[in-house]
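User: Continuing from earlier, I have the next pair ready.

Assistant: Great, send them over.

User: Here they are, in order.

Assistant: Folding the first of the pair now:
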Amino acid sequence: MKFLTRSNIIPLFKGVVDAIQPYARSNQVSLIFRPEITELVVEYHPEIVIHDVTQLLCNIIAFTPQNYHIEMKIHEVVIDDEPYLEIGIKNNGANLARITEITAHITNKVKVTSLAHNETLYQLYISYNKPEIQELNTDISKIDHHGIPAYYAQISKKLRSHFANPENLERAAAIKNQADGVFLQKINALIMSNLEHEGFNPDCLCKGMALSRTQLYRKLKALTHQPPAQYIQFVRLQKAKEYLQNTEFNVGEVVLKVGFASHSHFTRAFHDQFGFKPSFLKKDNPENGT
């Protein structure tokens, strides 16, 4: 069910961009958000807006070469006497032969223009209603302190989780280079097969991949933006989150299953990665091991 909400829409765009940043970084693409307006209270369908902006941005990122940049701006425009938000997304180095794939599954109108210097401009047009000031009667209980609908926090968390997990990093790498995708798949499989072993470290990863420490560091850092030790912990914590969400294991059991020796270290690391404590996912279970 698609429902209408009324709020400042600009922070929502920023939230989507922030959520997608891990995916952009994993592709070694710089994603910049430069709104020309900072506040615009409108009535709009958040599901459609989030879907279209997320889909288009992710598609553009996937087909943008490494070390290039993407810039997103927002303008108000009028078309046939109707107000629209024009979401302008400009990148360079994109393969124009993939335009159909890049703009697929977008609900709203997208205009694509080839610019000078190998740049491409994608313009997404989103209609909205701009209520009169006296009509504004927003339910504060449904809006957080940034003016973003409360339910968006959950969507944002899901976006971050989706675009940052190891499987999607594999897919992102494979889009650029099939061999890189295979390499990252082997890395992830090796970490997963040793998940319960607390002592599994970068040296073990080097041995398993038959690479020197320097080779492993350079390759893994290039593909994931993380050094080996950090990436091993990243995979451990992603699996921990999966266990907590989808199984009956309590937090204490999960700590052991993902190779952490210290419950407190696990809790700190989990909070740093996801922004909440592991016990949050087991808050309805009094025997959560916390």
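And the other member of the pair:
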Amino acid sequence: MRRPGGFTLLEMVVATAMVAVLAGSLYASLYTALKARRQALGLCDDVRRTHAALDFLQADLESAVVPDGVLAGAFEGVAPDQASSDEPFLSFHAVANDSGTGAGGIQLVEYSIEPSADGADKLLVRRVTRNLLATQQTDPPAEIICRGLQQVTVNYFDTTAWQQEWSSADQDNVLPKAVEIILAIQSFSLDQPVLASRLVLIPCGQGIADETSDESGAADGEQASPGSQGSGS
């Protein structure tokens, strides 16, 4: 006698088990791919945040002016972990480069590390005083350059060695030759902070060693001039 068409219970169980195994494998593959995509996008966002902050610092530092003019004040840099929350760890005067506003002249630029409103986050804050001749100075608005800040390291190069602090008032009104900035920010996708660094060359930077060599060279030239005149006569 011929068996009627259809599947037995055992065949249905085996087919269902095979479909479940294939679906589980496909889900695991898709989950891994989507997780990797989210981590990659989050890491790209972390990199963009750090580089945006470094771009601000680089543009301002490259516009720094020598602190010996009427409006150009001192270049002051202290270790960020030693500066209080209401004091900048980096302040200097620079040529205004806000092309969008058309502003020009000399402006005071200050960078500080401040807590967020709820105190759960650290912010890299930039303040710019554009009118240095105002009779009544008001606090400049705070620009949040970077959130999730964990650590900032700034080093100053004087052509011979790196220093953790710089005060032009104590160093004959000269700027550092270069400034190294290292940022560590909290990552949105990784369990460890994201590090980024940048080396900024100061166009007006002279450094202590350069100024010393220039002064010694000028002194040697002044001493050599009378001798050369005497030998010529």
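Worth noting for the second one:
Confidence is low (pLDDT under 50) at residues 218-233. The longest helix spans residues 9-62.
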